[in-house]
Amino acid sequence: MLGLRQGATENTVVVNDLLEDLVTRGLAPERRYLFVIDGAKALRAAIERVFGERAEVQRCQLHKPRNAAYLPKGTPGDYNRRIRNACYAEAKAELQKIFRQLECVNPSAARSMEEGLEETLTVHRLGVDELL
After folding, report:
1. Please, which of 62, 74, 78, 86 could form a disulfide with 94 given CB 3.0 to 4.6 Å?
2. How far is the C-alpha of 64 from the C-alpha of 70, rounded, in Å?
3. Would you say residue 125 lies in a domain?
4. Residue 74 belongs to a domain
């Protein structure tokens, strides 16, 4: 663990303070880093502000399939399994297909799927070894 900040919620001030403190304590902002995060918008914005284009962001590949569990009972298709398999196989086309199907079944789930879709596949784009 590199740092910790306590806050009532995930907010921009707390996250900016955490990242700026890491830089103050020696984390070189000019280097490239891979940040693995959930969908917190404040965290994503702070990473962009402090590290800019040097930051590679990987969205947690567990969150998207887990969100499929909240689809209404009787929704056709095993979306949890399909999303999980697509994330592990770098199947961007399959994830987009699932998104289009979800638009008809559950627009809210489709928006959740679409948000951060590119960042769900960052480790594949970078060619990061699966042992990471």
Report:
1. 86
2. 11
3. no
4. yes
Q: Angle CA(126)–CA(129)–CA(132) in degrees, nearest 5?
A: 105
Q: Residue 33 forms beta bridges with which residues?
A: 55
Q: What is the pTM of this model?
A: 0.64
Contacts 24+ apart (CB under 8 A), 33-42: 34/58, 34/122, 34/123, 34/126, 34/128, 36/60, 38/63, 39/63, 39/115, 39/116, 40/10, 40/15, 42/10, 42/11, 42/12, 42/14, 42/15
25 belongs to a structural domain? yes
Q: What's the one-letter identity of residue 64?
A: K
Mean pLDDT by 10 residues, the chain (132 residues): 78 88 92 87 90 89 70 69 70 81 84 80 78 64
